[in-house]
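Subject line: Sequence and fold of a protein, written as structure tokens
Area: Proteins and the way their chains fold up in space.
Start of record: The labelled sequence and token lines come straight after this line.
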Amino acid sequence: LIYYPTRDAASQLRPKLFAQLTPQTTVAANAGSSEASEAVQIVLGMETVSISAASRSDRDAWIKALLGARGGSAIDMSSLSGPAVAEPGLGTRMRMTMASAVATSSLGQAMMKNYLDPSARTLLRELVLVAAMYADERTAASLKRSLLDVCARLVVAVSEGRMPADANLDALYEDMLSFTQDFLMYSRDQRLKAERGPEAEMAALDIPALITPFSRVAAVWRLILAGSCRAPVLARFDEVFAFYVRADLIVALLTDVKYRARLTEIDRALRRLLEVF
């Protein structure tokens, strides 16, 4: 069982925790006063994990799955092999195309609300504004279309579980966490510099070390798209990646007072996402 606590009070993060479901693991229903308050309780040694269920049938499905998994062998995700991404069905391709087609419309924005956390939507908005400030008008407009296009397609693909069969999910999580924490550290340093002046202690800005883990995550995103999208979509992904993951832009974002408002909003969005994930 892999799960996240609601909140770790000490670190304000939600660390990923692991527990082996043994034959002795107790799984029971926690009947609420209404169907909406149903939950599943799993007793793991001295601790009890409670999983909220959307309905009684959802609760019963969880109980059946957990009871069936008791005493099973642990799975090493890195040992899985097979095709990178299974061939998508017609329904998936249609949903990805529709999501892309309406990504910049009011309908598209409404659809994105069903998939993305508010902080993720804030992050997208700020990335669009950064492009508008850094690039010329034509380039910024192209980047906005491409960014929303590939994000809409990725949202549909990931929501349907279309991850590469051999993806090491723990490594991806650690890479994304490493990038986010390092970026927030540099952002904090710049804020302290603005408040305290040159005497503020700051970590040396190491761009290659910052972007390397994110590049590995982006490579998996591209692989997901490659399993269900044609070359033009991959070209748009490459356009977005090449623009945002570049040393001059990152240095400007972190050090130029011109981008202070954008950096502040990006910082806040990333911190909220850390709490969620």
User: Anything to note?
Assistant: Confidence is low (pLDDT under 50) at residues 7-16, 32-36, 73-107.
